[in-house]
Design goal:
The protein is mainly α and 191 residues long. Helix 4 crosses helix 8 (107-123) and helix 8 packs antiparallel against helix 9. Helix content is 70%, strand content 0%. It folds into 2 domains: 3-48, Homeodomain-like (Arc Repressor Mutant, subunit A); 59-182.
Length: 191
């Protein structure tokens, strides 16, 4: 990739995060972002349709960074304690950025994008399970349940403590039996 493209995108990213730390997404203008990023509007529109497109792409980058800590989606089934330690640990490491990018009305997008990404990983090798409502329900429950238990119990204090991560991880570990009983294990051992 051209160094100018990288510099422009990094400048846009930094300006966006800075503005999002102070304002709701809908209150940020392209003009304001371009001034902060020291770029022309035409440069912005070369890469993005509008502020919502930029926000969506940055949200996806942040989620990709978090989900990339999960080396194997089967870990959600076979090693849920390790899975949640990795997932919630990555969220903790990226807390400031995640809280900024997904603040306000964008907050629900975080778990929706994490769930979509994790399920995509789970179904890449076995597309026949994509429309299996039982499997999708169990995966959603495991993903959303662990996430919301974590978020609800740190909401007031913004405490991303190791103890809280461990508690959610262990509780999720107890779900392993239910998950394993209801999701067929394939010949290669993956979901």
């Amino acid at each position: 990739m051209d160094i100018r493209v990288i510099k422009s995108k990094n400048s846009i990213f930094d300006a966006f995060v800075n503005l999002r730390s102070k304002k709701e997404l809908r209150k940020i203008t392209v003009k304001e972002l371009c001034e902060k990023a020291l770029i022309n509007k035409s440069t912005f529109y070369t890469y993005y349709e509008d502020m919502f497109d930029l926000s969506d792409k940055i949200e996806s980058e942040v989620v990709d960074g978090i989900v990339s800590t999960i080396s194997n989606p089967q870990m959600m089934i076979d090693e849920p304690v390790k899975f949640y330690r990795n997932l919630l640990g990555a969220m903790t490491e990226n807390k400031a950025l995640t809280n900024t990018v997904f603040s306000g009305s964008q907050h629900p997008n975080l778990i929706v994008k994490i769930s979509k990404s994790l399920k995509k990983m789970s179904f890449e090798n076995h597309p026949e399970y994509i429309n299996d409502k039982k499997i999708c329900t169990i995966l959603d429950y495991a993903i959303y349940g662990g996430y919301y238990a974590f978020v609800e119990n740190q909401a007031d204090t913004n405490d991303y403590s190791t103890e809280l991560i461990e508690s959610v991880s262990v509780i999720s570990g107890h779900m392993a039996k239910l998950i394993k009983e209801n999701i067929p294990v394939l010949k290669d051992g993956s979901v």
